[in-house]
Design brief:
Radius of gyration of chain A: 20 Å
Strand content of chain A: under 5%
Number of helices of chain D: 3
Oligomer: heterotetramer
Number of domains of chain A: 2
Order of helices and strands of chain D: EHHH
CATH class of the largest domain in chain A: Mainly Alpha
CATH class of one domain in chain D: Mainly Alpha
Largest interface: A-D, 92 and 76 residues
CATH architecture of the largest domain in chain A: Up-down Bundle
Distance between the termini of chain D: 60 Å
Structural class of chain D: mainly alpha
Largest sheet of chain A: none
Number of strands of chain A: 1
Radius of gyration of chain D: 17 Å
Order of helices and strands of chain A: HHHHEHH
Chains: A mainly alpha (169), B mainly alpha (658), C mainly alpha (407), D mainly alpha (102)
Shape of chain A: globular
Structural class of chain A: mainly alpha
């Protein structure tokens, strides 16, 4: 029993709990907080997996920007308790069980996948700085085109958001 | 040979004119439209002339000169006789004649039209159609194979339809257009089948190849082919029994009547028969049929012409009967004479129509001769030109008509296929022709004015209308003099020129020349003999009778009409042919179409099927629609269901995981 | 006992965290005192004066007041989030500080752990930003959960404002990162070659000189990030009563208060590290006398206090100021001992620079009026962002140019 | 330092993903549905990082990076749409928004 395993289980429990909370909470803002919790836990898991850069990006972009946006919108629209309507029969009876079925399937298959046999060494063992440097190398050489493409995507997204949210005058 | 190698230019010019006017003319001033339309035709005429000049320098073995531009369609290369059609044009003597006639007369009529149509709406449309017609007509006469010829054939039909129905707001005009198109269709059906049979028989549609192997084909097949083709000619050239469309076609503008329904298009049938003469010459029965149809038509429509009062109707029936003469000529093997008459007829009949148009123009749209009279002094140019044309058509010696008609009747009398009865019909017809033509002239120009002079202000037409009249008048006089030397024992230059074309039917031309030359008498005797021939006599007779009836004592016609009322009404109503057709063909057809095809087949079968399909689609869609509830959650549920299934498939059955 | 020997990192970390926490808390408290004093003097007032000599005990009094006041919670508030928000704010504020190195890593404990660096992770800057980026939630959630329009509006404004200015903040920093070619604080301070030199032998190679534009952008954005005047729209009294913490009282309010000052300290630390050469002294190392500057300054302070005690103070205040005098003088004397003098260099300069920036903050507050909201937004997006972007682009170009020329 | 099998991470990501799916179909509020999508993305990212770790290269991380970027763009547009929706329909319940056009 060592720290990494303890950390892993702690984060795993946190994230799962957060996900459950996301589902069960009736206030959208509670769901949002739950999701932020999940993201934090996942970020720590990234650290454990020796990907500090990704962890930081996860927090900055996801927790720091995207989720803030969500919270902001929730506040803006003053979204109250969600009403639990059940207009769709299949969603009412089939939805949740199907979801869990899918969960079991994927979990089972992933668990038995040969990739899983490897051992994830903790953060300490890997040279983060070097990894980050290599990551940037890949990002700006090997994956340059996708990178630029994403930048254009972002630009278009900004424009789209502006056009959508613009007040009709 | 700059132009001979680019025959297509002759066609392309009018087509370009049509395209330009049709596309852009709407917004243009009349002058612009004129310059395009007339310009293109004039250029086309010049090109044609140049072509002919170059043609005359060709050696005999180069004739017919064929310009092959591109392969239009090819089918069944595998078979021994692949169906292969080239867009090919050809020039031989026959083509040359037609080419000159069409482009020249066409040019004159274009010029005339610029004056005649000046006040009409749709000016650009008219000239665009007219140019298009020129294009198709030239295609027809220059075609090197039956298919291209057929294109021109149908194209001129189309243009005739468009131009007859030019004033499409007038119901009678629109109907006339349709009538012309449909009636001609009947003949064209035969023509099409004939072309197919030609291909089936000869394995090709190119004239030269057909003629080269005409000899070894059985006669009865050739006869069938010829009869089928002749059916097409009947339709196009308004012979019995399909002539009914031509009189109605007078609904169109007069220049159109002149160009299409007198000078060029209606003669296409004759041209086609002449073009296929090698086949016809091998099929005596077909020849006989052609001759009979021609002669009977000539006589028959002449009789109708006797009593018509509409100036253009008279000319229409006379056209029919003149076409009859041409077919008679072909039928008796005198193709040259037929083509000769075709040419002269183009001159004087075109002139007649244009002059009639000028008269109508002067009378402010009045077409009924009984409401005219005494126009002689008021519109002298029109009067004189028209009088010349009348002399020409009446076959008065010295005028163009005389030579050609004389040649025809002579061939009918003592050609190789000579037939007395046909000759008789021809002669009587000639007399009648002379009579009703002079009747027309006298009614129109002589006697007391029968119109209200305060209402109608008769005025001579503008220069651009009268000048073409004069040119044509000149031709109506001298256009036939190619044949003049023959009368004095010389040779007929026209015939000599055309001889190579009809060499396939050599015996004919030989016979004619023989008939012309073996008269042992002296040239003077020949001349006398020709001048005192029956045609001349009856022609002058007709003149005199007409003068007596309509100038000397104008009350005789009425009394005659009283005495032989039955015959008169019969003629006046054109033998009730339209009514008979209506009763025998049109009404049953309508009845069947309405009660069987429409109510049973269309509504029951077709609509039923369509509606059934629609209903099935709609109902199944209505069922499927229920899934598309628009509720995102159910969509999500469906997606998950699919994902579950797919993952199960992937990992479970295919065992991708391990 | 052997647990300690097994986990040196852990132990050292615990110790350092405890000490840092204490220092920072005190610093927060006295920062408020500093602010009030400075503003007061700028406005030619005395400021806090009665509670303790020169109001030196005022922060303590405030803290006690906050502790003992009744903690009112609006009945309509969302209890969980309402209580969560202030903790979030403060804890984030403090955590950020834990990433700051206050001195060179060379100065170490006996067990080989760096003394002035709590968590020596490279990518430290990235994580600092990560934490500051989450800082929004404290304000936003507080605004939402207290279920009052003022608070909600304040929360909305602050979240919008923080998101907007965070962008410029980050971008304005990137220029420096490009120069240093690293995210590691030590390299950021010492430069890529690891040994910071001098221009013209006397201008220290601090990033502020090449990156002056970035520095200005950073300062502006940082003020906005910490919701300080002139960007304190979230708590604009004149329009929103008190903004996002309108409904807060007692210790929860105090937490927000401390969080704000913690953030101030953080951003000024960051500014110091990124632009002002962190713990490096402005003078060439050859000038050995500078080792005595800390003690000298302390002794001077002691001297002033002593004079002041004797001349001005009466009664209890005289006693208190005397204590201060003794502390300062003692500290100054201890710092005369060469090894300590050497070791104290880093923290000294660091603190000095931080204090300078903080003073600038307070100065701003005392000087400038408040922006209007639309002005704020348009300023952030239409001026600050483009400028910092241009700065970034130009910097990148200048760096890459030589490579393009010969490479 | 530690011995956590990659498969544990993978299973965790699977669980998170599944929960995200459940949330997607279970929630009615369009914003929370959006969040559940983000949850799924996070799960996938976790799997990516785990794979990258197992394979010992960094492509997985690059992918995660791209996923995050795309998620950001998606959130921007999506939330704009949500705002429009709320303004036009006065309801965030997806089950009440079953028509494309009012």
């Amino acid at each position: 029993m060592n720290i990494a395993i303890i950390m892993f289980f702690a984060c795993a429990l946190l994230s799962v709990a957060g996900a459950m909370l996301l589902i069960l909470a009736r206030e959208p803002i509670h769901s949002a907080l739950a999701l932020i919790l999940v993201m934090m836990a996942v970020a720590v898991l990234y650290l454990l997996l020796g990907a500090p850069f990704i962890a930081a990006v996860q927090i900055i972009v996801y927790a720091g920007a995207i989720m803030v946006l969500f919270v902001f919108v929730i506040m803006l629209l003053n979204a109250g308790v969600e009403e639990r309507t059940d207009f769709s029969r299949i969603a009412k009876f089939g939805g949740v069980p199907l979801g869990f079925l899918l969960l079991l399937e994927i979990a089972h298959s992933l668990y038995h996948s040969p990739v899983g046999k490897a051992i994830a060494n903790g953060a300490g063992s890997s040279n983060d700085a070097a990894d980050t440097a290599k990551l940037s190398e890949m990002l700006f050489r090997q994956y340059l085109f996708p990178f630029e493409a994403t930048s254009i995507l972002i630009l278009i997204a900004i424009l789209g958001a502006l056009v959508l949210a613009r007040k009709e005058s | 040979m700059p132009l001979l190698n680019h025959l297509w230019i002759v066609l392309a010019l009018p087509l370009a004119g049509a395209a330009i006017n049709g596309l852009f003319g709407k917004r243009w001033a009349q002058s612009a439209v004129n310059s395009v339309a007339v310009g293109s035709v004039v250029l086309s005429f010049l090109a044609a002339a140049e072509t002919v000049r170059e043609f005359c320098h060709l050696a005999a073995n180069q004739i017919p000169f064929i310009g092959n531009y591109f392969t239009w369609m090819v089918g069944g290369e595998a078979t021994p006789h692949p169906f292969r059609v080239d867009f090919a044009l050809q020039v031989d003597q026959l083509t040359v004649v037609m080419l000159l006639v069409v482009t020249f007369v066409g040019m004159l009529i274009h010029i005339y039209s610029t004056g005649y149509m000046a006040q009409e709406g749709g000016y650009y449309r008219f000239f665009s159609y007219l140019n298009l017609f020129m294009f198709f007509m030239l295609t027809l006469v220059m075609a090197a194979n039956l298919i291209v010829m057929f294109v021109g054939w149908e194209g001129v039909g189309l243009c005739s339809y468009l131009l007859i129905g030019f004033w499409f707001l007038k119901k009678s005009a629109a109907d006339a257009g349709k009538k012309a198109f449909i009636v001609t269709r009947i003949g064209d059906f035969g023509f099409t089948v004939g072309i197919l049979l030609v291909f089936a028989t000869f394995g090709t549609v190119a004239f030269s190849e057909i003629f080269s192997q005409v000899a070894e084909k059985p006669v009865n097949i050739l006869t069938t082919i010829c009869l089928l083709l002749f059916a097409g000619a009947i339709g196009k050239s308004a012979q019995l029994p399909l002539y009914v469309w031509l009189p109605d076609a007078m609904e169109g503008p007069t220049p159109v009547s002149a160009l299409i329904h007198a000078a060029t298009m209606v003669t296409a049938g004759v041209y086609m028969v002449a073009r296929m003469s090698p086949l016809f010459s091998r099929a005596p029965i077909a020849m006989l049929v052609v001759a009979i149809v021609g002669a009977v038509t000539a006589f028959y429509s002449a009789t109708i012409g006797l009593v018509q009062t509409d100036i253009k109707k008279v000319l229409a029936y006379s056209t029919v009967s003149q076409l009859g003469y041409m077919f008679l000529a072909c039928g008796v093997g005198a193709y040259t004479a037929g083509i000769f008459h075709l040419m002269t007829h183009a001159f004087f009949k075109g002139l007649l129509f244009l002059a009639a148009g000028s008269v109508i123009h002067a009378m402010g749209g009045e077409q009924d001769m009984t409401k005219m009279g005494g126009l002689r002094e008021k519109i002298p140019a029109t009067y004189w030109t028209m009088f010349i044309a009348t002399l020409a058509i009446a076959g008065i010696p010295g005028f163009a008509g005389f030579f050609s008609k004389d040649a025809i009747l002579e061939a009918a009398k003592d050609g190789p296929y000579a037939n007395l009865w046909l000759w008789l019909l021809g002669v009587v017809g000639a007399g009648l022709t002379s009579f009703y033509m002079f009747r027309l002239v006298f009614l129109t120009f002589f006697g007391k004015p029968r119109y209200d002079e305060h209402k109608v202000h008769v005025h001579e037409s503008p220069k651009k209308m009268t000048i073409p009249l004069m040119v044509l008048a000149f031709l109506s006089i001298f256009g036939g003099w190619f044949a003049a030397p023959k009368l004095v024992g010389g040779i007929d230059y026209f015939e000599k020129f055309l001889a190579p074309v009809f060499s396939a039917s050599a015996p004919t031309s030989d016979a004619i020349t023989a008939a012309a030359t073996d008269t042992t008498a002296s040239p003077a005797m020949d001349l006398l003999h020709a001048l005192t021939g029956w045609p001349v006599i009856v022609g002058i007779l007709g003149l005199l009778v007409a003068w007596w009836f309509y100038v000397k004592s104008p009350d005789i016609p009425k009394r005659m009409a009283q005495s032989v009322r039955g015959l008169y009404t019969l003629l006046f109503n054109k033998y009730y042919v339209d009514e008979i057709y209506a009763a025998l063909i049109v009404r049953p057809l309508l009845w069947i179409s309405t009660n069987v095809l429409w109510h049973v087949v269309d509504e029951g079968l077709v609509d039923g099927t369509v509606n059934a399909t629609a209903t099935i689609a709609r109902d199944s869609g209505g069922q499927a629609r229920k899934i598309q509830s628009g509720n995102t959650r159910s969509y999500a549920a469906w997606v998950i269901l699919g994902a579950v299934g797919f993952t199960a498939l992937l990992f479970g059955l295919l065992g991708v995981a391990n | 006992m052997e647990f300690i020997s097994q986990h040196p990192v852990l132990v050292a970390a615990v110790v350092k965290i405890a000490v840092l926490l204490f220092i920072v808390m005190t610093a927060l408290a006295y920062l408020t005192w500093l602010e009030r004093k400075v503003i007061a003097h700028i406005q030619s007032r005395w400021g806090p004066y009665n509670v303790g000599a020169h109001g030196l005990l005022q922060p303590l009094a405030d803290g006690l007041k906050f502790l003992f006041k009744e903690d009112v919670m609006p009945p309509v508030a969302d209890r969980l989030i309402y209580t969560l928000a202030p903790f979030l704010a403060l804890s984030l504020g403090l955590t950020a500080i834990a990433l700051i190195p206050f001195g060179p890593p060379i100065v170490q404990f006996p067990n080989g752990q760096p003394m002035f660096v709590v968590s020596d992770i490279n990518l430290g800057l990235l994580f600092l930003f990560a934490i500051t980026s989450i800082g929004v939630y404290g304000v936003a959630l507080a605004g939402w959960s207290s279920n009052s329009k003022y608070a909600l509006l304040g929360g909305l404004r602050s979240s919008a404002q923080m998101i907007s200015y965070e962008v410029s903040l980050t971008i304005s920093v990137v220029g420096v990162l490009l120069l240093a070619g690293s995210l590691d604080f030590n390299q950021l301070i010492n430069g890529p070659n690891g040994q910071a030199g001098y221009w013209l032998h006397f201008i220290p190679k601090w990033n502020v000189f090449p990156q002056i534009v970035g520095f200005l952008c950073y300062l502006t954005a940082a003020i906005a990030e910490t919701n300080r005047i002139p960007f304190d729209l979230p708590e604009a009294e004149t329009e929103l009563v008190a903004g996002f913490h309108t409904e807060y009282s007692a210790f929860k309010f105090a937490m927000f208060f401390m969080a704000e000052y913690a953030n101030m300290i953080t951003v000024s630390c960051l500014a110091t590290i990124l632009f002002l050469g962190g713990w490096l002294s402005p003078f060439p190392a050859s000038w050995t006398w500078q080792n005595y500057l800390p003690s000298v300054s302390l002794l001077l302070l002691a001297a002033y206090c002593a004079w002041n005690t004797v001349s001005e103070m009466r009664g209890i205040a005289r006693l208190q100021l005397g204590v201060v005098t003794l502390l300062a003088g003692g500290g100054g004397l201890i710092c005369l001992y060469p090894p300590i003098a050497a070791g104290i260099q880093g923290p000294f300069w660091f603190t000095a620079k931080i204090l300078a920036i903080l003073f600038f903050y307070i100065w701003m507050r005392a000087t400038l009026p408040r922006f209007r909201y639309d002005q704020l937004m348009s300023f952030g997006w239409k001026l600050l962002l483009p400028v910092s972007l241009a700065n970034l682009v130009i910097t990148a170009f200048v760096i890459v140019w030589p490579l393009l020329r010969h490479g | 330092m530690s011995a956590v099998p990659i498969s544990w991470y993978l299973v965790l990501s699977a669980i998170l993903f599944g929960l995200g799916v459940v949330a997607f179909v279970f929630k009615r509020n369009i914003i929370t549905i959006f969040m559940s999508i983000e949850l799924m993305l996070n799960a996938v990212n976790l799997a990516f990082v785990a794979f990258a770790r197992a394979r010992g290269d960094l492509d997985g991380l690059v992918f995660v990076f791209f996923v995050i970027v795309v998620a950001a763009a998606e959130a921007a547009v999506g939330l704009a749409i949500v705002i429009m929706l709320a303004q036009n329909r006065q309801s965030l319940n997806v089950e009440r928004v079953s028509l494309l056009k009012l």
